[in-house]
Design brief:
- By secondary structure, the chain is α+β, with helices and mostly antiparallel strands.
- 17% of the residues lie in helices and 29% in strands.
- The protein is built from eight helices and 25 strands.
- The strands form eight sheets. A six-stranded mixed β-sheet has the order 11-10-9-8-7-18. Strands 2, 12, 13, 14 and 17 form a five-stranded mixed β-sheet that branches.
- Helix 4 runs antiparallel to helix 5, helix 4 packs antiparallel against helix 8 and helix 5 crosses helix 7.
- The longest helix is centred in the C-terminal third of the chain and has 17 residues.
- The termini are close together.
- The relative contact order is 0.16.
């Protein structure tokens, strides 16, 4: 669905998981890279075979080419007063990191000092920051055409870690880069760094650590792995590129990752590189735009001082989950439309139906919401998401009391409604008129279609 409620679900479940995690737990061990004691031949020898999902369209990419195609921008104070002009366009990867004495720099805004531009933001003049400073505010802004990536000829980047207390234990961490991450709900962003680690004991492989989405890292014993030519097989999930040892469904907060057989094989050992030799090594900013919504921000990648949790974890990964089942009542459109008469097959009829949905959303009327949005919710569920009732129960918690009140009396501006065909109408978020302001990130735009004598949200 284009509906942004799935993003809200991801945020809510993430928050719930954080609360549930409070209390006693085993401390995580963090380790950093130590390249001086690494072996390039060993790194190549243990590099995994990555099997992409058979329907994957977002391929791996060379991180350097991603940089060269991007614009470097600066984000002030969590999106406050973003600069209109980029810091650099084009971007020189060598000026991002430690390959130069003069990396890219930018000044913070200085509060209380008026801007020379006709805008409400204060002017630059605060502390100067460098692109090698962790979280300083720099981010790479790639063009949308980069999202498809390049293919299995892309490089894989490795770094070497040592156990803090057991000198016999070491590990090679393998970083995979993709230009775009697409997992709904709640996880769609530019730039996608994924990783696994091959744990060694006295130089011999012992296990593989998987950095799981939404959960702590876990490991699989070497003897339990699917090996190909002595290398571990890693299954990459559709869209999100999360790494797993098995084929099937893998729960991620409010949704599922999906891995499969039959996809493209990525022979990572053909293009394996030490990450500390990359021209951009030392860049500590974000790889993608910052939306300031959990799950929609470009991530940070590997950088010199980054500490990784659980590289040497002994916590074992569980098996793949069963395919999601529909535990809620049927969410298909009813055979007969609600009400005594069929809804008008007109633009006005679609608007009336959409306003019914908005009012129900404000009242937390889940029966009406799931009736109107049934086809779209069912489509999302078929892709591995939760049933409509489960999803919207979380959505209701994410809507503020003020927004709920506004939705109960919201109307639609007919001038902003787009009629595609007699049976298909688009309702952009800008068409909603209410006492509160809504955006794509908290309400979204919808497509309604005329099905079985009634209008339903289908996308």
């Amino acid at each position: 669905m284009k509906v942004r409620v799935w993003a809200m679900v991801g945020v809510a479940v993430s928050a719930s998981a954080a609360l549930a995690a409070c209390g006693p737990e085993k401390p995580k061990e963090y380790t950093g890279a130590e390249p001086s004691q690494a072996s390039a031949s060993a790194a190549a020898r243990f590099a995994p075979l990555v099997r992409l999902h058979k329907k994957e369209s977002l391929m791996p990419m060379d991180a350097t080419r991603f940089i060269e195609r991007s614009v470097l921008r600066f984000d002030h104070d969590g999106g406050f007063c973003r600069d209109e002009e980029p810091v650099a366009d084009p971007v020189d990867p060598r000026l991002l990191g430690l390959r130069t004495k003069e990396p890219y720099r930018h000044h913070d805004v200085e509060l209380g000092k008026p801007s020379s531009k006709p805008m409400s933001c204060p002017a630059h003049g605060g502390r100067e920051r460098a692109s090698t400073e962790v979280g300083a505010g720099f981010y790479l802004d790639p063009p949308k055409e980069s999202r498809k990536g390049e293919g299995p000829g892309a490089p894989v980047y490795w770094e070497y870690h040592k156990h803090k207390t057991d000198p016999a234990r070491t590990a090679y961490v393998y970083w995979f880069f993709y230009a775009y991450n697409k997992l709904s709900p709640g996880n769609m962003h530019e730039g996608d760094w994924e990783r696994v680690a091959v744990q060694l004991r006295d130089g011999k492989p012992e296990a593989v650590t998987f950095a799981k989405h939404g959960n702590d890292p876990c490991s699989v014993k070497w003897s339990d792995l699917e090996l190909s030519g002595g290398r571990p097989t890693v299954y990459s999930a559709l869209g999100s590129h999360g790494s797993y040892a098995t084929v099937g469904y893998h729960r991620v907060l409010a949704t599922f990752d999906r891995t499969s057989e039959g996809g493209v094989e990525w022979h990572t050992w053909d293009h394996v590189r030490p990450v500390d030799r990359e021209p951009w090594w030392g860049y500590a900013g974000w790889w993608g735009a910052q939306k300031h919504v959990t799950g929609f921000n470009g991530p940070m990648g590997p950088y010199p001082t980054r500490q990784l949790p659980g590289v040497f974890t002994d916590d074992r990964c569980g098996p793949a989950d069963e395919a999601p089942t529909d535990e809620a009542p049927s969410e298909e459109p009813p055979t007969e439309p609600s009400g005594e008469q069929p809804a008008l097959r007109t633009k006005e009829g679609a608007i009336q139906r959409y306003e019914e949905y908005l009012h129900a959303l404000g009242r937390e009327d889940i029966d009406t919401v799931c009736e109107v949005a049934g086809p779209a919710a069912k489509k999302a569920q078929d892709e591995g998401f939760g049933p409509c009732r489960t999803t919207y129960a979380v959505v209701f918690q994410m809507i503020s009391p003020e927004q709920k009140t506004a939705l109960r009396t919201a109307t639609v501006d007919p001038q902003r409604v787009v009629v595609r065909t007699p049976d298909k109408v688009e309702m952009p978020v800008e068409a909603v008129r209410s006492s509160a302001t809504f955006s794509e990130s908290d309400l979204g735009s919808y497509t309604l279609e005329y099905i079985k004598d009634a209008w339903y949200i289908t996308d």
